[in-house]
Write a structure and sequence with these properties.
With about 160 residues, the chain is α/β, with parallel strands linked by helices. The chain is built from three helices and five strands, in the order H-E-H-E-E-H-E-E. It has a five-stranded mixed sheet with strand order 2-1-5-3-4, covered by helices on one side.
């Protein structure tokens, strides 16, 4: 009889251990399932939510009240960026940076939208008489300005010098 009660204790102890392991495994499965659902939702929002917001930025049709501009000399002629800066400031644009472009072999001047509002870039291009085909978009979160202007070798045809 003593052996039977000892076996019952061992069996019930084994059953208790198995029950605890089962509960632990079920909790772990539940937590991992929740994690998978959360990660799937996060990926969905990143892929389709970001696409929607970037399309909203690209479709803006109203230029900003204050347009911050960077003027880069891409033609190599000394003083051209200063002349363009004076002209743009007289037109009420906020020129925040004047510098040289990485090279001086730019044939046609470019206007680059940096924030996703092409109407800002078009407004600048129109005020400088830059061809619409030279207005492009290169979004970059590292820039703290709206538009970059790269002055090319066609600078003498543009409004500031006419």
């Amino acid at each position: 009889m003593a052996k039977e009660s000892s076996n019952k204790r061992n069996v019930s102890g084994a059953e208790l251990k198995a029950s605890t392991v089962n509960i632990s495994m079920n909790v772990l499965i539940f937590l991992l399932g929740g994690l998978i659902i959360y990660m799937s939702y996060s990926i969905y929002v990143k892929l389709w939510g970001a696409e929607k917001s970037s399309n909203e930025l690209i479709e803006k049709e109203t230029p900003s009240e204050i347009i911050q501009v960077e003027v880069l000399n891409g033609c190599g002629i000394s003083g051209v960026a200063d002349m363009f800066t004076d002209y743009l400031r007289a037109q009420s644009f906020d020129v925040v940076n004047i510098d040289n472009y990485v090279s001086f072999d730019i044939n046609e001047s470019l206007v680059i939208d940096r924030i996703g509002n092409m109407s800002n870039a078009r407004k600048i291009a129109e005020s400088l008489n830059i061809n619409k085909k030279n207005v492009i978009q290169q979004l970059n979160d590292d820039y703290f300005l709206d538009v970059t202007i790269i002055i090319g070798k066609d600078y003498y045809k543009l409004k500031p010098l006419k």
